[in-house]
UniProtKB/TrEMBL annotation:
Keywords: Signal. Residues 1-19 form the signal peptide. It catalyses: a beta-lactam + H2O = a substituted beta-amino acid. The keyword Signal applies. InterPro entries: Beta-lactam/transpept-like (IPR012338), Beta-lactam_cat (IPR045155), Beta-lactam_class-A (IPR000871), ORF_12_N (IPR040846). Residues 180-281 form the Beta-lactamase class A catalytic domain. The lineage of its organism: Bacteria, Pseudomonadati, Myxococcota, Myxococcia, Myxococcales. This is Putative beta-lactamase. SUPFAM superfamilies: beta-lactamase/transpeptidase-like (SSF56601). Gene3D superfamilies: 3.10.450.280, DD-peptidase/beta-lactamase superfamily (3.40.710.10). GO terms for molecular function: beta-lactamase activity. Residues 33-122 form the ORF 12 gene product N-terminal domain. It comes from Vulgatibacter incomptus. GO terms for biological process: beta-lactam antibiotic catabolic process; response to antibiotic.
Amino acid sequence: MVSFVVATLAVTMAACAHAPQSATPSSAASAAVPATPAGEGLAWFVRSINDAHGVVTEDELVERFSGDFLSKVPASQLVQLSKQFGQQIGNVTLESVEEQSPLALVAKLGSAQGLLRVSVAVEPEPPHRIVGLLIGPDIPARARPTSWEEVETALGAIAPRTNLLAARLEPDRCVPVREVGKDEVLALGSAFKLYVLLAASEQISGQTLSWQTPIAVRDSWKSLPSGTLQHEKDGKELPLVQIARQMISISDNTATDHLIRTVGRDAVERMLDRTRHASATRNRPFLTTREFFQLKLAANADQERYLGLDEAGRRAFLEELDRKELPPIETAAEWKAPRAIDTLEWFASTGDLCQVALALREAGQVEGSPVLDILAQNPGVRIDRDQWSYAGFKGGSEPGVMNLTFLLRRKSDDAWFFFSVGANDTRKEIDAPALVAVAEGALELLGK
């Protein structure tokens, strides 16, 4: 679902060693390490390469990495991998840092092998040991299209099924500026979390919940990454607003499931009707991410059994499924090709998503509501702040699926806009940099 922050250091180190070179790094670091727990994890990693040339001890790794991480990649193996990595990469320079939260970040490191992309996630409690370290080559940005015709041509080359909507938001409707695949209903990946945020906001407006309502972490509600909430102890209470922020900003799957369970699956499904979703039945029952992984990573026979049931049968199946364990995270790491993206997913057209954006904009304009701030935590792509005074974002992906959805306010006239672009391919992964380039080009055109 957007990404897996897992203990795959062995694989990614090997990939970096043979990665094609990208942009030439600067001769000196041009970014500062954030003064956060994730920043300290990054600083240690950089020191281990530059000062120790990758030479670390098992005792040091036990201090730095969580037990869960070391259960996937033992300290003895990491010692050898780190040494190999240090020899192959040489010194690194910190080129940029994108803070996703105090507990997670993405950095770009310059090296003789080219730019590297390093994701770091740490435990929420001191001493904030590393729970995720993902390293890979940084893929250079693609050229942006500079006209709507180029946008459409570039989008058509990415996948056999695509959709796009750029629209001006009036008080109660979306007015299209540019549209591709008007009625194309596609798998969304984690962009479905917009419906969950809306459901939570509705219950808060109805005073069933508040943004400060404590939600206790439950082991039975935990999911696979992305995210960090799954590392919290069973029973720990966190305010609803914090869980909502994690769901949107770092696409935290466990946070998402805690919100779905708190507001109720039926409440999320009501948001499909409230926003006049044209294909609502395809999203009933509305899956949690835990159920999604249990089905996606299951044997084909289990998937076929679920898909062969009617809605009532599927709901009963999920009740049974919820009593079962999550699949091992290693099975997710092996997930490279599209799996059942036309049948096991969350689905919407760009028009459906625009209705959600309208509702979220309305919810965010209520005094004291953090909805707009939550959506703006992670802009997703490069945003020209000279064009846009506000940019809210939620994206999603899995192999064969990618969606980028934005709620925007234009700086020149304070007008509100919606933009969404999606791509589905049942044969292969989506070219993510290409779709990002399409989105960035379209946003530049829309902002003029």
